[in-house]
Amino acid sequence: MASRVVGLLGFVMIVAAVGANAATYNVLDQLGWSIPPLGNIAYRTWAAGKSFDVNDTVVFNWTGTHDVAEVSKTDYDSCTSTNTIGNITTVSPYSVLLSGNDSRYFICTVSNHCGLGQKVTLSIGSASSLAARVLSSFALSALAFAFLNHS
Ligand SMILES: [Cu+2]
């Protein structure tokens, strides 16, 4: 019974934490900014599981020869690196502050890395991301609940 109360408390705390602002996300988490083994699906899956909001920070970490360039959606789709928005960043880590509501598009301009899937779209604030957020907080609390009941 006590563990159930703790589990419920955990759920409430997680929901409260999810509502807090200004989060930091590391691109592809531990894998970092790299050529994904199975193509761009890795970045799409990663981004789909996140809920980016205004004032959040997204950090690109990498080793080896990569860079980060922000581009338009058209250039993103075609992996065109000759018309970047701002400078190409060659030093890791690189932090991007999500300052507005528009989607942001980032690619690696080295060799054919973008074509191999090293590019990521950061979509900011949407109903679906809110749903994903609630869903993931529910999954987290269920995990915490199961863990607490088990111990
Ligand atoms: Cu690269």
TrEMBL record:
Signal peptide: 1-22
Pfam families in the record: Cu_bind_like
Residue stretches making up the Phytocyanin domain: 23-126
Membrane-spanning parts: none
Alphabetic keyword roster: Disulfide bond, Glycoprotein, Signal
Lineage: superkingdom: Eukaryota
Cross-referenced SUPFAM superfamilies: Cupredoxins
Name recorded for this polypeptide: Phytocyanin domain-containing protein
Annotated organism of origin: Eucalyptus globulus (Tasmanian blue gum)
